[in-house]
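REVIEWER CHECKLIST
Item 1: Sequence provided? yes
Item 2: Single chain? yes
Item 3: Sequence as submitted:
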Amino acid sequence: MSNNLVFIVMDSCRFDSYHAAKTPNMDRIGTGERRYAYASWTSPSHYTYLMGMIPHDSPQNVFASEVYKKDFVKWVDRLGIDGLSFKSFIPNLSLPKVLQDQGYRTVGRVSMPVLNPASHLNKYFDDYKLMSNHNDFAGMVDEIEFDEDEPSFHFLNLGETHYPYMLDPKSLPHISGVHGVFKRMDDQLGQGSEDKFFDEKQMRDLHLQQIKTVEYVDGVLDALIAKAPKDTHFIITADHGECFGENGYFGHGPIVHEKVLEVPFLEGKKR
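Item 4: Structure as written out by the authors:
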């Protein structure tokens, strides 16, 4: 029987936030390392992951095509499915499609509205839902079920590590993000209004709060590990990083900065 797969994406979590956090449960899965996302914001990064790719380590003196081929072959070791290769993913370039073809039940739980079920990301999922609460990793864990007779793929996008980092939004200055921008964009057109930028102390506080959310996620992870059958393969990463004032930048998206591309990556099996 093939291994179950849990693929967790901590939205917006930059590498040094993960590195500074206490993560005993993630440590049980594997050793975290610094890698780089293929995109600087949520949607394109998740599309990349659902192609079957993972954050890269920016290798030198290699052809990009060779890096991709090696990444796809790694699914053989992760899942115990012989013969998986880049050809297995053609023409759909879809990890959930490949897993469906191998008899997996494919389940998606997302926190960001740009990943909602009407998006193309939902293709080849048997069960896909946008959570009603921005910060509901615990709710996702409650809903997850494993069947000893059917392997499953659980793809989870977590909002806890995304602004406003589990704080009451009213306690922080407003900054347009994936939750706020779609609700406020039409109202603001033509008004010339802009969000007030954070000062240096607020930037530090926000970074510290993201570190705390990583620790919260790690605490909830304990229940998911307990629930998962032996040999379940976990991948834990982020879709992109975040800027907290470096070179005058805040956030992610239309920002070209190393901190926006640095992400944590770890993987391993439950033993």
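Item 5: Key structural point noted by reviewer: The beta strands are 5-10, 33-36, 105-110, 127-130, 152-158, 233-237, 243-244, 250-251, 262-269.
Item 6: Recommendation: ____
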